Recover the amino acids of this structure.
């Protein structure tokens, strides 16, 4: 029971003051929740919620970077398959030229002209193989491919074909990867470096065994190129699904994180208005309470 | 019985002195606002009052310790959340570097250089100070933590000790997080501590060692969970500190009121009594001047 007529200690005022500083604390919490939009602004606001949301934020950051990684992978594959498409068209042209040369109406001069064109085309395949890069990574052949000698004098075995595989990091955690091999599509790797149409004629007789082996070589090259394209296409397909899956997960996690950390604005603002009213009433009451001891002095006059 | 002049004078003097001393006591109470001005006023109440005063200053001491501790914890908490975002950026860099599309030396060098800068940021965060004391230094508050968690110097004595504050009788609460627990402790699910992980991330990004980077990523993720865990732990201690703080201020309020009850004068009562006594005193004085002054001598011819 406090002493109501004491002048040294105003118990009503100190009670009001304590309540007021409590309300003031609440108001400053409301300020930070409303202005940041977050219910949890530091670990002290809700340690468990903070830890969970922090883990989610880390996961979201990882997922977004993984999405970027997968998309880079798609770009890399598109670059590789673009080069392969070009090579495939050249192979089709080669096939046409070989068929043309196999026709008995060509003389050795014609064949020599056709071979010139074949050499150019083979060289183009090698240039494509040597030059196709993504971020300085060779995709369809090593840079030595442009040095392969095409035509009759090619000494097989002097070119070491590209043997590389790409590992894409497509998740935030270690080991969440996709791995695929790159295929060399230089003339040496496709086995068509030594195509020589001039050998179709020996004297004036058509060498049908040479013709059929040459055409088979070209067909085999087309088959192996198609299969390499199909493999890369499958990986690209997988990556597209990965991207949409990653984006989906990231989206869902961000939503989940938001429900934990975000301020319920309507609720927070209602509370804030209420606290403001309580604060104003508290201040008015404190003023009243402070005058109470002085009132006693009226007894002296 | 015979009443002599001298008896009346004696009685009058006796009464007026009594009146005077009562009024002196009341005046004393009025001017100090207290009933207890000397131990003799009320020996029992004075001894209670003294012990309440002791409790009150003890509580003020605890309140000071709590508010110091809270400042330290707030600073630590904000440094830790900076640490978290720095680590998240390093995680993104690592995910970038471990991706197969980025195996170009120039790209890797750039990633490694960025990671190196972020490690510099981490080291700066480790050296956060409050005043001239290192937040993460344990009880060795004068040695820069970066020198032993990211440098080669061995940790000084006390680097992993708790910095505890006495916040209530017999209750000590640690207010710090040590750099050694953040950086030099192997996290659950990891094989290396954060310090080693950061160093090897910078090196492995430079060399493009995808296998090592994958391990680094796992260690980094484990390390980040550990940091979040420590931050949440600090947050829980902050919650406890805040609760203690409001308990202490409530307690101090109560004790102050109790002190008021014991030592404060009931001013209404004192003033009323004083007014009454004043009237009595004035009456006595008036009586004295009228009754005591006339003597037989006055009627002598």
């Amino acid at each position: 029971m406090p002493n109501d007529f004491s002048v040294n200690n105003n118990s009503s005022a100190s009670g009001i003051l304590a309540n007021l500083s409590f309300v003031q604390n609440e108001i400053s919490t409301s300020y930070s929740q409303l202005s940041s939009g977050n219910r949890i602004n530091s670990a002290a606001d809700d340690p468990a919620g903070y830890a969970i949301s922090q883990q989610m934020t880390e996961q979201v950051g990882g997922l977004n970077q993984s999405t970027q990684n997968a998309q880079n992978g798609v770009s890399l594959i598109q670059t590789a398959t673009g080069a392969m498409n070009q090579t495939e068209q050249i192979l089709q042209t080669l096939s046409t030229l070989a068929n043309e040369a196999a026709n008995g109406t060509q003389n050795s001069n014609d064949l020599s002209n056709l071979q010139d064109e074949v050499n150019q085309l083979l060289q183009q395949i090698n240039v494509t193989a040597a030059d196709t890069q993504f971020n300085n990574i060779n995709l369809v052949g090593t840079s030595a491919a442009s040095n392969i000698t095409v035509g009759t004098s090619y000494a097989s075995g002097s070119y070491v074909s590209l043997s590389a595989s790409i590992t894409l990091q497509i998740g935030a955690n270690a080991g969440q990867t996709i791995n695929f091999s790159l295929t060399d599509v230089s003339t040496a790797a496709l086995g068509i470096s030594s195509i020589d149409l001039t050998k179709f004629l020996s004297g004036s007789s058509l060498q049908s065994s040479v013709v059929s082996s040459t055409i088979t070589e070209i067909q085999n090259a087309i088959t192996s190129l198609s299969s390499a394209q199909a493999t890369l296409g499958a990986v690209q397909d997988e990556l597209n699904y990965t991207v949409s899956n990653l984006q989906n997960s990231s989206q869902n996690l961000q939503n989940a994180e938001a429900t934990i950390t975000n301020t319920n604005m309507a609720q927070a603002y209602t509370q804030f208005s209420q606290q403001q009213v309580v604060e104003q009433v508290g201040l008015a009451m404190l003023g009243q309470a402070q005058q109470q001891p002085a009132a006693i002095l009226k007894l002296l006059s | 019985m015979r009443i002599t002049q001298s008896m009346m004078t004696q009685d009058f003097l006796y009464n007026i002195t009594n009146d005077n001393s009562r009024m002196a006591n009341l005046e004393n109470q009025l001017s100090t606002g207290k009933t207890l001005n000397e131990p003799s006023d009320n020996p029992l109440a004075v001894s209670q009052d003294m012990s309440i005063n002791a409790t009150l200053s003890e509580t003020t001491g605890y309140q000071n310790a709590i508010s110091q501790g809270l400042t330290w914890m707030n600073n630590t908490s904000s440094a830790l959340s900076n640490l978290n975002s720095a680590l998240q950026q390093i995680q993104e860099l690592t995910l970038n570097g471990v991706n197969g599309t980025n195996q170009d030396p120039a790209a890797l060098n750039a990633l490694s250089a960025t990671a190196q800068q972020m490690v510099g940021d981490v080291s700066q965060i480790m050296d956060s100070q409050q005043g001239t004391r290192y937040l993460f230094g344990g009880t060795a508050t004068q040695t820069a933590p970066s020198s032993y968690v990211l440098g080669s110097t061995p940790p000084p004595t006390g680097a992993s000790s708790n910095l505890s504050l006495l916040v209530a009788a017999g209750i000590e609460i640690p207010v710090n997080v040590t750099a050694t627990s953040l950086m030099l402790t192997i996290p659950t699910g990891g094989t290396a501590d954060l310090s080693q992980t950061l160093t090897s991330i910078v090196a492995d990004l430079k060399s493009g060692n995808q296998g090592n980077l994958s391990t680094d990523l796992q260690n980094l993720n484990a390390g980040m969970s550990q940091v979040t865990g420590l931050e949440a732990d600090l947050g829980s201690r902050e919650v406890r500190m805040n609760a203690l703080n409001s308990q202490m201020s409530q307690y101090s309020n109560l004790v102050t009121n109790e002190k008021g009850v014991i030592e404060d004068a009931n001013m209404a009562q004192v003033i009323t009594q004083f007014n009454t006594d004043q009237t009595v005193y004035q009456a006595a004085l008036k009586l004295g001047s009228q009754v005591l002054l006339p003597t037989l001598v006055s009627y002598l011819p």
